[in-house]
Amino acid sequence: MPWSTVELMSNLMNWTWFHKLGSPKWFYEISGRWLPWLIAAAALLMVSGLVWGLVFAPPERYQGDSYRIIYIHVPAAFLAQACYLTMALAGAVGLIWKMKIADVALQQAAPVGAWLCFIALVTGAIWGKPTWGTYWVWDARLTSMLILLFLYFGVIALGQAISNRDSAAKACAVLSLVGAVNIPIIQKSVEWWSTLHQPATFKITGKASMSAEMWLPLLLSVLGFYCLFIVLVLMRMRLEVLKRESRSAWAKAEVGKLVGARP
Amino acid sequence: MNAVRKKRLYIILALVAGVAIAVGLALSALQENINLFYTPTQIANGEAPQDARIRAGGMVTEGSVKRSADSLEVEFLVTDFANSVPIRYRGILPDLFREGQGIVALGKLNADGVLIADQVLAKHDENYMPPEVTKALKESGKLKPDAKEGGA
């Protein structure tokens, strides 16, 4: 085994990489290096996926063109749930290792997730009117998704309401962890109960319930939304890290650079 | 992981497991109320309350739709392939309403077991297909003409 691999393995095993992540300066540097690539990937995937899906994909046999909202609805709903799981994970890391960056991630992801959840609900309602004949029904899927939106509001409100940073972090982490119980309920609601909402069309595993020329743009769009989500959260986190570290020399230098760069 | 962190991890796992169990119990207790609609079998077994507004859901039976000649009144059967419920509705049906399509009707059961609906919602399935594919499938005989329209 080459020496570098051994070193990497031992690094991974004694968790140094993990503890390094907790250093705000290290996070700021590494995320700055990733961002341009992530932005490029997000732009490329989203533009290709959405243009393909909204313009070139064939119309659906019964719904005609109205089904095309799926290219926004499904990725937004996916990410709204993935975001909450990320927050729960960050909450656990924050509580167990007392890592400050986990709290930054949790609180900065919450508004992004809330917007995604809101987009999923609104696009679903717009699609529901012509397809089902109603904007809203209180079925298990729709209701559990609305609860997710309220959980996001709860996390955001808790973070804002508690002025002590450590208490706020703890409260948000606990709410994120407890609320994560809702995610499998959203996922399984269409199987456990009879709902108006149909079961999943877009599946990572198993046979897709849609033809390839409709599924591929959806896949691109979902991946694009993932990249966009990571970009948005990283950008918000970087700003928050600078704010929190504003007394340290490296943050002052970084802010100076950013302000100086402006004409 | 040191002992303190391990302890915190266990506390968190216990917290999440406790909440999950509590929510699971609550949901299983509410099982009946969470379902958006009764299936025709549940209605046939008398699980659906009389004289209360209920929702009935299932597939519109092929060839069962009877439209009135001089009004918007329409009558059809909804089935889950074991039992079926007759539904009477006056009004404009959603665009996706067709024989073989899944629907949910909201209304009251009358004494004859007919659901007098005041709202009919179309339930779309998870299958999305472009029209050419449906046509090709029908021509190749993989999809029976009309029988499978609307999917399962």
Automatic annotation (TrEMBL), chain A:
GO BP: cytochrome complex assembly
Superkingdom classification of source: Bacteria
Keyword list, A-Z: Cell inner membrane, Cell membrane, Cytochrome c-type biogenesis, Membrane, Transmembrane, Transmembrane helix, Transport
Compartmental location: Cell inner membrane; Membrane
Stored InterPro entries: Cyt_c_assembly (IPR002541), Cyt_c_biogenesis_CcmC (IPR003557), Cyt_c_biogenesis_CcsA/CcmC (IPR045062)
GO terms assigned for molecular function: heme binding; heme transmembrane transporter activity
GO cellular component: plasma membrane
Pfam families: Cytochrom_C_asm (PF01578)
Domain spans labelled Cytochrome c assembly protein: 18-197
Listed transmembrane segments: 34-57, 69-97, 109-128, 140-161, 214-235
Membrane topology of this protein: Multi-pass membrane protein
Protein family: Belongs to the CcmC/CycZ/HelC family.
Role this protein plays: Required for the export of heme to the periplasm for the biogenesis of c-type cytochromes.
Protein name: Heme exporter protein C
Organism of provenance: Pseudomonas segetis
Encoding gene per record: ccmC
UniProtKB/TrEMBL annotation, chain B:
InterPro entries: CcmE (IPR004329), CcmE-like_sf (IPR036127), NA-bd_OB-fold (IPR012340)
Source organism phylogeny: Bacteria, Pseudomonadati, Pseudomonadota, Gammaproteobacteria, Pseudomonadales
Keyword vocabulary terms for this entry: Cell inner membrane, Cell membrane, Cytochrome c-type biogenesis, Heme, Iron, Membrane, Metal-binding, Signal-anchor, Transmembrane, Transmembrane helix
Key word Ubl conjugation present: no
Residue numbers on the Extracellular membrane side: 30-152
Sequence positions that bind heme: 124, 128
Gene name, Swiss-Prot/TrEMBL: ccmE
Record GO biological process: cytochrome complex assembly; protein-heme linkage
Function, in words: Heme chaperone required for the biogenesis of c-type cytochromes. Transiently binds heme delivered by CcmC and transfers the heme to apo-cytochromes in a process facilitated by CcmF and CcmH.
Any one of the GO CC terms: plasma membrane
Family of this protein: Belongs to the CcmE/CycJ family.
Membrane topology classification: Single-pass type II membrane protein
Annotated SUPFAM superfamilies: Heme chaperone CcmE (SSF82093)
Residue ranges, Cytoplasmic side: 1-8
Protein name per UniProt: Cytochrome c-type biogenesis protein CcmE
Pfam families listed in its UniProt record: CcmE (PF03100)
Location of this chain's protein in the cell: Cell inner membrane; Cell membrane
MF annotations from Gene Ontology: heme binding; metal ion binding
